[in-house]
Amino acid sequence: MSQTPRPDQNDSLSSRLGFPETTLEIGPTHPAIRRVMTPVGGTTSFIVALDDDRITNLEVDIGLGHRGFEKQAESGSWDDALPYVSRLGWVSGLHAEIAYCLAAESLAEIGLPDRAIWTRMLVGELARVSDHYSRLGAAMAAIGLRDAENVANAGEDLASEALVAATGGGHLAGFSCFGGIRRALPEHFLEGWSKQRSLIDDELTRFGSVATSNPTCTRRLSGVAPLVPEDALAWSVTGIALRASGISADVRKDRPYLAYGALEFDLPVGEQGDNLDRMLVVIEEIRQSLGMIDQCHKILSSLGSGEVCVSGEIIIPEGEAVATVESSTGELAFFVVSDGVGLPRRIRCRAPSFFHAQVLPTVMVGARLDDLLPTVALMHLVSAECDR
Amino acid sequence: MSALDLEALRATHADLDVHVSASPTSDPDSPEARMRVPGDHARTLLERLRGEADAPSVRLLDLTVVDRLDASPAGFEVIYRLGSRVGEFAYRVHGFIQDSADDNPSIGSVSALWPSALWLEREAFDLFGIGFRGHPELRPLLLGADLGADADLNGAPLRKSAGQDQLSSGAGP
Question: Is some CB atom of chain A closer than 8 A to the CB atom of B53?
Fold first, then answer.
């Protein structure tokens, strides 16, 4: 009597059961939703083909926003575009604002007052701290570590509180303007910083005890979605994801803007380029940013009160300029073209998230579905930035 | 190469009809070399600038288009921003596509040189209606079938000729 051949145990369960390959569409959600249903919200959609829970194919759809940001920016005066620019990222729009202002100021050949330079760096680093905490929170939510998520959220809230105290409006403050900043940092922020800083720092220590030294967390992140340095460079990946892959590149070090050349800080780099390395780089960058804020705070306290913005009308002459900053997500640049007629001819934003979305299939095919959202969080993919 | 040598760039690429100049950036210590080249020569120039095939020394940072149909000479500039690994030097290549009567502007694709150009070229195709010859899958990236086929946008909303009122009638930022 012949025996029915046993199915090959190496086959996936779905193929042994004769189930077809599954295709799922994850997202989009409302642009303002961040963590209600998924740790990453917004107008990005992931179309995933699955064999069991292994990803066999992935298409990332970023074409769902349609704010027409570049067109809008080109249809008004140069400073009309500023409110659109600061809405490019829900947590670190301040960096985009700084990049756009630097591009326009470079065209107009305006020198900034010292107070404006150091204040822009201070609020930029504060926004980075807040953004990085939000990424940690999103990643922890995605792997189901609620206690670690709560700690990261607490850190984000403390950094956001400081940002509101500093700018008066938090992330959408409209803080930078052509020629400087709209208002000097208030006294109560400068006086309260050291206390707030130690609270933010405490959350980082707490995060270490519930996440970094927690095997449940490190096992979920280790070896997941590795990006080798060659691929990172070929796909124009920047920011956390590039540094986690072992490449020490950061605009603040390599092509310092504002006065970053005068600041002391280290660049953490990873080795494996996996999610664990990305998380460790994020944590260390929060620490480095806090150190940078201290240095800016010291300089600003010694500068005292005075001019924060150049006075007089600013005319943007004919020409082209590029300004690049290291935003929380990566290398963010504005390329602007002026005919000298008041309306910009071209305003182009190089958004780091665009490239992180593009490389996602390279790192995710073969990985488990469960690992998609933590990777999106730790790669710093912000939907709003991909809008045109 | 650690610094930018404009003379050397001019001499090396003289056969491609390249016009080289220095362009100021926000960091005066690291200027960009601005290179204007006819569209048909752009890909050859970019391939040379990229360096060795197995160890490219130059990254593609960005690719975009500037509509200059109302200028003289009329056409499109396809702009490639390149940078070294850690930013010691940078190039900005402007490939100029002369306006022609059939309104079918195109330029050679660089997606085989840098995979990151795959989406960048799809975006430029989508928003400016520029073709990229040799792109393996030139389909819209951002606009769905309904928006892409909108006659008022002429399939290329970022061109200066495309209406702006249609774009602002939708949801706000």
Answer: no
Of A62, A236, A255, nearest to B30 by CB-CB distance is: A255
Residue A34 has a CB neighbour count (10 Å cut-off) of: 19
Partners of residue B66 in chain A, C-beta under 8 Å: 337, 345-346
Per the structure block, which two tokens stand in for B81?
Answer: 């921003």
CB contact under 8 A, A67 and B30: no
In a mutational test of the A interface, the residue from B23, B25, B26 whose CB has the highest number of chain A CBs within 10 Å is B26
Of B81, B157, B172, the CB nearest to A335: B81
Q: B164 pLDDT band (50/70/90 cuts)?
A: low
A356 touches chain B (CB under 8 A): no
- Facing B27 at nearest CB: one of A83, A255, A354: A255
DSSP A233-248: HHTT--THHHHHTT--
In chain B, whose CA is at the least distance from the CA of A86?
B173
Give me the total of CB pairs closer than 8 Å, taking one residue from chain A and one from chain B.
115
- Give dist(CA B18, CA A316) in Å, integer: 28
Which CATH number is correct for B6-159, 3.40.800.10, 3.30.460.80, 2.160.10.10, 1.10.720.60?
A: 3.30.460.80
Where in chain B are the domains? 6-159
CB contact under 8 A, B116 and A388: no
CATH class given for the domain over A68-386: mainly alpha
Secondary-structure breakdown of chain B: helix, strand, coil percentages, each rounded to the nearest 5: 25, 30, 45
pLDDT for A36 beyond 50: no
**Dihedral pair phi/psi, residue A281, rounded to 5°:** -65, -40
Residues 6+ apart with CB under 8 A from B167: A68, A71, A72, B153, B157
DSSP per-residue codes, A167-182: HSSGGG---EETTEES
CB A61 within 8 A of CB A76: no
pLDDT band per the 50, 70, 90 thresholds, residue B1 = very low
What phi, psi does A227 have (nearest 5°)? -120, 115
Average of per-residue pLDDT across A267-277:
96
CB–CB contact B115 A103 (8 Å): no
Q: Where are the domains of chain A?
A: 68-386
Q: How far apart are CA A183 and CA A201, in angstroms?
A: 27
26-65 in chain A: CB under 8 A from chain B: 62-63
pLDDT score recorded for residue B172: 42
Interface confidence, given as ipTM, is: 0.92
The crossing angle, in degrees rounded to 10, of helices A187-207 and A146-167 is: 170
Residue A209 is given by DSSP the state I
CB count, 10 Å around CB of A170? Answer: 19
Closest CB to A233: pick one of B29, B59, B119: B59
pLDDT in tens, A87-102: 887 667 899 999 999 9
